[in-house]
Amino acid sequence: MGQTFVVATSGIDLSLAAAVMLGAIVLGLVNAAGYGIFIACVLCVLATSAIGFLNGLIITAGKIPDFVVTLGTLSAITGLGLILSGGEPTMVGSTFLLRLASGSFGPFGYPVWVAIAAVVAAHVALYHTRFGVHLLATGGQVESAGALGIRTNRVKIAAYTISGLCAGIAAILLVARIGSAEPQINTSLLLNSVAAVVLGGVSLFGGRASILGPAIGALMLTALVNGLTLLSVSAFYQPLAVGAIVVLAALIMRYQK
């Protein structure tokens, strides 16, 4: 969902996976310091949101391409995470996180309900608010949007901040799932986020986006990876399959455009 808002502005957030890692480390360290799991979760989301805000601010104020900025923050955040954690994982023992990872309400587990809530909130923000209209206008043609009085810089900063916010939520779910804050970046998170957006029909050139599409794209990618695992296909081939699908989907989108 976070990557969708960024791509809708014709940008890309390459620092997303590193933000998830840093958010997890912040959560683990704050919880280990004895401040409690709820404060740790709040600070985790605030830290990743600040990363997104910083990305947007540098891109708009410095007029630097988003690819360069987010690639730089990817490296910087990774280094910061390693410095804070010392390169060692931090165990997080929490009843709340354990219930979040393994509990359920009705037919679905709590992580699925969190995902559904994220999809609904993103849909409302994109299609039922003035911000959503301004976001798509900025991605479609930034000069025209500016001429119409839209504060395009603020819109872009908000999009990257939303991406950081979603990274914080993902970090909480990740820590809940594995029970620790790992200082190693999971690069598949970045590739899969972009792949889900592309498969969902969001234009890489900005101006056209959907919310349900990327959600279905994420489910398709998960089904693909799980299917390859069940078929005993080597894990080395899984990134190859995902990458090929992304390139193919981008080519099809370009042809349709």
Automatic annotation (TrEMBL):
InterPro entries: ABC_transp_permease. Signal peptide: none annotated. Pfam families: BPD_transp_2. The chain crosses the membrane at residues 12-30, 36-60, 67-87, 107-127, 157-179, 185-205, 212-230, 236-255. The keyword Plastid does not apply. It is found in: Cell membrane. It is a multi-pass membrane protein. Keywords: Cell membrane, Membrane, Transmembrane, Transmembrane helix. This is ABC transporter permease. It comes from Mesorhizobium opportunistum.
